Amino acid sequence: MSVTLRNSPALLAIEEETVMTEMRRSPAELRSMFGENLRILAQKYPSISELSRQLGINRTQFNRYLSGESFPRPDVLARICGFFKVDARVLLEPVSGISSGHDPITGPFLGKFLGAGVETVSDSIFPSGFYRFSRRSFLDRDRFVVGLVWVFRDGGATFVRGYEARAAMEAQGLGMNRDAREFRGLVVRHEDGVSAMISRKDAMTASFNFLSRVTSFENNYWVGYVARTVRDMPDAERVVRMVYEHLGTDIGRAKEACKSGGYCTVDELLPFHQRLLQPDAAFR
Question: In angstroms, rounded to a whole number, what is the distance separating the alpha carbons of residues 242 and 224?
Answer without folding.
Answer: 5
